[in-house]
Design a protein that fits this description.
Blueprint lengths: L9 H7 L6 E5 L1 H18 L4 E2 L1 H4 L6 H10 L3 E6 L7 H16 L5 E2 L2 E3 L3 H4 L4 H13 L1 H15 L4 E6 L2 E5 L1
Parallel strand pairs: 1-2, 1-3, 3-4, 3-5, 5-6
Antiparallel strand pairs: 6-7
Helix pairs in contact: 4-5, 5-8, 7-8
């Protein structure tokens, strides 16, 4: 006798839990989009994970900000990929602040899984010019938001993540 129950797909399970996406990728495009992000995205999708990546989910004519926030709100796992120019993007920092806020206020378990891509912990802590200089520029235009961005960086910096370091052969994960 055939089993009359249908198997739930990963997408069905996510929607049943009220999540449109299982994973939200937050990254600075020029550093990582063509290469690391492509591999990560396709590996997750091939494994049956519903992933939000801006170029695949945002469409011409849509309002970027509200759609990004909606995707963050409807995700369970957040993967910020901190790269050399991540802090220079106001959108990346806005996403990060919203992610941290969303995780802290959520009624369901949500997790941040950071990847440190060719950056050092001191960069994220604003102790080197790499991220600190970006924040000095942001303070000229987005003073009201900068403190929230710094707070979000500090909170995520306390989470154990994956360190990706470049060597002669390419990038390696350092645990």
């Amino acid at each position: 006798m055939a089993n009359s129950k249908t198997r739930m797909t990963t997408d069905d399970a996510a929607r049943a839990l009220g999540d449109e996406y299982q994973v939200f990728l937050s990254f600075r495009g020029p550093d990582t989009r063509h290469g690391f992000i492509d591999f990560l995205y396709h590996d997750l999708v091939d494994a049956g994970v519903r992933v939000f990546r801006d170029e695949d989910e945002l469409h011409v004519g849509e309002v970027i900000g509200e759609n990004l926030l909606r995707a963050i709100n409807s995700s369970r796992f957040y993967v910020p990929i901190f790269s050399r120019t991540y802090a220079s993007s106001k959108w990346c920092l806005r996403e990060l602040a919203h992610i941290v806020d969303n995780v802290s206020k959520s009624n369901v378990e949500k997790s941040i899984l950071p990847i440190f891509f060719d950056v050092e912990p001191e960069d994220i802590k604003l102790k080197t010019p790499l991220y600190n200089d970006a924040f000095l520029e942001h303070e000229k235009r987005f003073l009201d938001e900068v403190q929230a961005w710094k707070k979000a960086l500090a909170q995520v910096d306390e989470i154990k993540g994956w360190n990706m370091k470049k060597d002669q052969r390419g990038y390696n994960v350092v645990l």
